[in-house]
Amino acid sequence: MPKNIEHSKLYQSEGVRLLYDNSLPGILITFIASTLLAFTFIDNNNLHAKITWWLIMTTMLAIRVLDTRMWIKSDAECRKKKRWIIRFSAGCLITAALWSVYAVTFYGQFSIEEFSSTNVILAAMAGGATSILSASFTLTSLYNIIILMPMSILLMMQPEQYKINLGSLGSCFTLIMIVSSARSANYIKETILLRYQNKKLVSSMEETIRERTQEIYVISNIDSLTGLYNRSAFLSAVAGIEREFQQNHISGFSIFFIDLDGFKNINDTLGHSIGDKVLVALSTRLKSFLEYGHFMCRWGGDEFIMLVKESSHEEARELAEKIIASLSLPIKLDDQTVALNATIGISACPEHDTSITRLIQLADIAMYSQKGKYPERLAFYNLDLERNLRRKMTLNEALKGALERNEFRLMYQPIVDTTGQIVSFEALMRWRYREQEISPVEFIPLMEQSGRINQVGKWVLEEACRTLAQIHQQHGNICMCVNISLIQFYDKGFVNNVKQVIERYAIPGHLLHLEVTESLFQSEQTMINEKVSQLQQHGVKFSVDDFGTGYSSLSVIQNMNIDYIKIDRSFIQHIEQKGLSIVRAVMNMSHSLNFSVIAEGVETEKQRQLLEQCGIPYMQGYYFSRPLEHPGALAYLNTAMVQESSH
């Protein structure tokens, strides 16, 4: 755009702004002056004419006030239109014309006082216009000519010399006002241009400084190992994407939170130098996805974050699966090959939130919820995930003092033989927190993750053996089954603790059955076998709980000399379909591997009959009894023994 045209548009837009900014005080002064002049010198001869003139003047001023309000409420782009200067100029010139109409129309009826007042007001209006309307030289000149020249010409046509002199003075005053207006207009133009140039210079300097600062900032915030953005640089870079969304330039974006599964093991076993090489190799693979115009950073450790612009759920899922497939490929490093998996949590804007930091948090929650799950390695955030995480955090915090607050208790569920005689009880831990029963499925994993399972496990063993000692005094052959976590096996004092409890309560070792899950078989077998063997030497029996739901190794079961296998309730519930085949297979194995079988989760007579037909020697479930509190369990046992003796 040529500079003259650019400056012309600048003067116009800024000039209109100055005119409207100054308009309301001028309108108010005009209204006051017209009202005083019209009503001060009113009489019966000119009553209707002056009131009519005043009403017209007031209407015109009201229209100008409304026009000013419309300008104030209009947006910046609308104010640049030429119609505003036309509307403003028309209002001013019509007002000036009304002043001249008053002077010319009522001149013949003027008293000396009204004549003097009229001339003073017209001169004052002209002088004020020179200042208030200085943003437009043309408008100021026309205003002065219209308001002063008709009265001046009229006076110069009168026979009295002093009126001729006043008319001449008015003409000279008009010329002076026009010259003054020209100077004021030039000054205003220079001021507008200088202000524009200064603003442009400052803006240019700020932009240059911002660009240089951004360059330095990005260079100093690149992750030295992977070459990706680090956390702070990433957040700075993607802030622009957040602004684009807020300004409706893009419809949304997604955040991928990528976590490498098993990276810690590589650092621990192969060393940090190998770990660094793995990160570099995987970062190179991640960079291949930047060609789609995404932002990516190393968030910390083995965590990466990627921002994906404008993608549907299907597109985001497809991209995440490609990333997982790429990261899961083997990595060749010198003379060895390593392989990792990756888990990705995804959050979407605006579906889940619009803040980058919040979306990162939500994607992290989604990733955490999916970590370690197979075969799906990615998850989209949903509100339930966050609720579950918050609940876990709340429960985990509450578990810290639960034992000291006596919130835990044990319940006992009978295990019976084929005749219905009670042979043992299983001690089941319960937690009541804030008048709510928390499921063991929730709190047991939390205790295992935090390591509190060792302390609580000792308490469970102690309480169960105290109850067993009471039962043993009256019913010598009843056993007690206690669930043991894998974490407890890693406790160096576990074996000694079990021995001390047996000795303290004078319990025959064979009456204590320790139940473990199949996850035990995935652990360090040498250490596990050694501890199991030590306890078995003291008569302690071992059961495998929930058999068939996890990792199973018959050779390990044989080597560990397991005493009991408990068939998981899921097979019993479907025993009339495929579950019956599983039950029969386990019974066949029990004969060759020399272990006994317990069916848990028995709830109906039909299930009991089918299990009995299969030769299952022991059963447990709601069909026989629900878990009972300590007094209830003792009462149930006594009643069962009385009934048995009566038969």
UniProtKB/TrEMBL annotation:
Residues 251-383 form the GGDEF domain. One of its GO terms (molecular function) is cyclic-guanylate-specific phosphodiesterase activity. The keyword Membrane applies. PROSITE patterns: EAL, GGDEF. The chain crosses the membrane at residues 20-39, 51-72, 84-108, 120-143, 164-182. Residues 392-641 form the EAL domain. Keywords: Membrane, Transmembrane, Transmembrane helix. It comes from the Bacteria. This is Phosphodiesterase. It comes from Buttiauxella warmboldiae. The lineage of its organism: Bacteria, Pseudomonadati, Pseudomonadota, Gammaproteobacteria, Enterobacterales.
